[in-house]
Amino acid sequence: MKPKPIRKNQFKKSRKVNRTLLRNRAVLAAKGCFGLLALVAASAAFIFAHDYFTQTRHFQVRQIVVTGMQRLSRLQIMEIAGVGPQTNILSVNLAVTRKRLLAEPWVAEARVSRKIPSGLRMHIREEVPLALLDMGAGEGFLINPAGEVFKRWDGSDSDALPRVQGLDHADLPVSGMPPSEAFGAVMTLFRLAGEKNSPLPLSGIRRIRMDREIGATVYTGENNRLVKLGFGRYREKCQALGQVMSRLSRDSRLTRYTAIDLFDVNRIVITLASVDPLSSDHKEG
Question: 131-284 has which fold?
Answer without folding.
Answer: Rossmann fold (3.40.50)
